[in-house]
Specification:
With 130 residues, the protein is α+β, with helices and mostly antiparallel strands. The chain is 31% helix and 42% strand.
């Protein structure tokens, strides 16, 4: 696995498709991921620490995880199949580590809120890195 950092959000209010770019933490490779408008908006709110009156879905999910006594361990973009990325969110719980399937955009939106590390499987990064 390769640790990544948030690099850029290309946010276009006139389009349904937005782009998030992750950058290798200890290298120069970059990885673009197409995401939806709502996920881009949620990421925009998180990275700019914008005040909101009511919790967005990702804020709510984060609150639920914490209320249940779990913590975010990391997110991992695991696969690229038929032009679709797949991710898993890893949590630490009282019963051990649990991971759940997620869209990468949702996983990244959560990771940015809770400052969880973002990883990508090396094989995936090799396929799409620029």
């Amino acid at each position: 696995m390769v640790e990544m950092t948030f690099y850029e959000l290309r946010f276009d209010e006139t389009s349904d498709t937005q782009i998030i770019i992750l950058k290798e933490k200890f290298g120069d490779r970059r990885m673009p991921i197409l995401i939806g408008f709502n996920e881009a908006h949620s990421i925009h709110v998180a990275i700019n620490e914008l005040p909101i009156q009511r919790p967005l879905t990702h804020d709510l999910a984060s609150s639920i995880v914490h209320a249940l006594g779990a913590t975010f361990e990391r997110i991992v973009v695991t696969e690229l199949l038929d032009s679709t990325f797949y991710a898993r969110i890893h949590f630490k719980t009282a019963n051990g580590v649990v991971d759940v399937d997620s869209r990468p955009s949702d996983a990244i939106a959560l990771a940015l809120r809770v400052h969880a590390p973002i990883f990508v499987n090396e094989e995936v990064l090799d396929q799409v890195a620029r």
